[in-house]
Every structure is written in structure tokens, then in C-alpha cells.
Design brief:
five-stranded mixed sheet, 7 helices, 21% strand
């Protein structure tokens, strides 16, 4: 019986494990929501860069710390290589962190025994590498994996995913005038390489590039008379989709999509306050 069904008797205190499961999935769905909405902003050239002076070493240390426990649980060795002295530069901290979380999450899925996170300066660029000793990327797939919703066929690991993370990360990198690429390691595994222009902290801060979100972007889907918030549910299981819709529609205007491609098309015509998605 689905978790929501178990909660309908009103005895919430008896269903702690179901609430924990729902909370875990909501956190995951919120992450996917933000990625899709940000992806839409980038496509519509509405992404706003918040360029400030940051200690890049500290950002990388924080990311490594964030994934340390998860790597340990999976028996993976997580190593970090940082330059000395510390590297300070003008960057969008949020964009770097979003890219790194996606790359580290990806490495965590596929690594066999190790993940290596490194930072260096090369030819006037900040270069951050996330390497793991999992499967190599077939030569014919190296560009395709950065296409939205694309997943490598015949993936033996059958890892759950949305096909959004790498495409989103590449778009973020390009919005920062950078690049994101992948290279196979000599024996096994691969390395994802993020390269961003190095603007020294001693340089003058550039003016923040702003694109008002209200300009030229108006949803063409019908609005409710009482102007309730909107929710987009992305779920291929019709029974579960209906159950979630029924649970939410008393508070929200609810739209549904059966897959990621359909969801993206609807996102192009609307800007929901919440998107609910599930993968298995």
C-alpha cells in the first residue's frame, strides 16, 4: 500500500517510516524541480550571475565534506587535491556548487572504489575535475550524455536517473562562460572536467548581469480564479499520479505529465511553484 494511503487514517505518529520516505523523496524532487526551472531560465536567457570574490579551495572542501559520509557508506575512497596557496577568484558560488553536486552525485553512483576531486589553475582557467573508477564512457556517447534526458543505452548498472543532471550542469557552466567535458581514464573510469575563466579576486568586480524574470515570460496555461499556487506532477505510474493529484488538488492547481519530456514542454508554458517527480 502506498505511503500516502497509509497516512489517510490520520495516525501520523504511527507512520514515521512512511513520513521519512516521503521527506526523502520530497527533498529529491525539490532538487529536480530547481534544476528544471533553472534550466528553463538558462534557455530563456534569464539566468542571473551573482559574481563575487570566493575562496575556491573552501568551496571544493565543502563539497567533499558534503559527500564524505555517503562515500564512506558505499566503501569508496574520496580524495581531494587542492592547490597551494589557496585560489581566490570572482565566481558565482551557487553555480559552481550546483555543478559540483551533480558531478559528485554521478560519481557516487558509478565509482567502483574511488572518487578523486581536484582543483588547479591552467591557462587562465579554474579547472575542477571529478574522477571515478567506474565504467568508461563510450566514445560515441561523450557528447550525447550532455543532452537533456539522454541516458547511455544498455547501462549494466541500471542506476536510476532523470537524464537532467549533466545537461543542466553543462548549461550552468556555459552560462558562466565555461565548459564541461568528460575524458576516459587510461585503465577504467572517467573524469568530468569543469573549466571556468579565472578572474582574480584582485580584479574589479563585473556588473551583475540581470535578466528580469517577468520580461517576456507569461504562462499560457489557465489560471485559477482564486490564484492558488500551481504544482506539476511528473509520474509515469497513473495510479500513483492520480493519488498524488487527489492529495494536492484541494490546495493547489495541479497539472500532470507522464515523463520528463512532457514535463519540459509544460514547463515551457508555465512556471509552477512546485514540481513533483519520481524515478525508480
Amino acid at each position: 500500500m502506498p505511503a500516502l494511503e497509509k497516512l489517510r487514517d490520520g495516525k501520523i505518529e504511527e507512520h514515521g517510516k512512511h513520513l521519512t520516505l516521503i521527506e526523502k523523496n520530497v527533498s529529491y524532487l525539490l532538487e529536480i524541480t530547481n534544476q528544471l526551472l533553472d534550466f528553463q531560465k538558462i534557455e530563456n536567457k534569464k539566468m542571473k550571475l551573482d559574481l563575487k570574490r570566493h575562496d575556491i579551495n573552501a568551496i571544493i572542501k565543502d563539497i567533499a565534506e558534503q559527500f564524505k559520509d555517503a562515500a564512506s557508506i558505499k566503501g569508496l575512497e574520496l580524495s581531494v587535491s587542492l592547490p597551494a596557496p589557496e585560489m581566490e577568484a570572482i565566481v558565482d558560488n551557487d553555480i559552481i556548487r550546483k555543478i559540483m553536486v551533480n558531478l559528485m552525485s554521478n560519481a557516487l553512483k558509478y565509482a567502483a572504489s574511488m572518487i578523486e576531486l581536484s582543483l588547479k589553475e591552467s591557462d587562465g582557467h579554474i579547472v575542477i575535475c571529478v574522477s571515478n573508477d567506474g565504467p568508461r564512457i563510450p566514445e560515441g556517447q561523450k557528447e550525447k550524455i550532455f543532452q537533456i534526458f539522454y541516458q547511455i543505452p544498455d547501462d549494466k548498472k541500471q542506476m536510476p536517473g532523470t537524464g537532467i543532471g549533466l545537461a543542466f550542469s553543462k548549461s550552468l557552466a556555459e552560462s558562466h562562460q565555461g565548459t564541461l567535458s568528460v575524458e576516459n581514464l587510461p585503465s577504467s573510469g572517467c573524469s568530468f572536467i569543469l573549466s571556468l575563466p579565472l578572474k582574480r579576486a584582485t580584479e574589479k568586480l563585473p556588473e551583475t548581469e540581470s535578466h528580469p524574470e517577468s520580461e517576456g515570460f507569461e504562462p499560457d496555461l489557465p489560471q485559477t480564479k482564486n490564484k492558488r499556487h500551481t504544482v506539476l506532477i511528473v509520474e509515469d505510474n497513473i495510479e500513483l499520479q492520480n493519488e498524488i493529484r487527489e492529495a494536492l488538488e484541494q490546495w493547489y492547481k495541479v497539472y500532470t505529465a507522464g515523463n520528463g519530456k512532457e514535463a519540459l514542454e509544460k514547463l515551457k508554458r508555465m512556471m509552477p511553484q512546485t514540481l513533483s517527480s519520481a524515478t525508480s
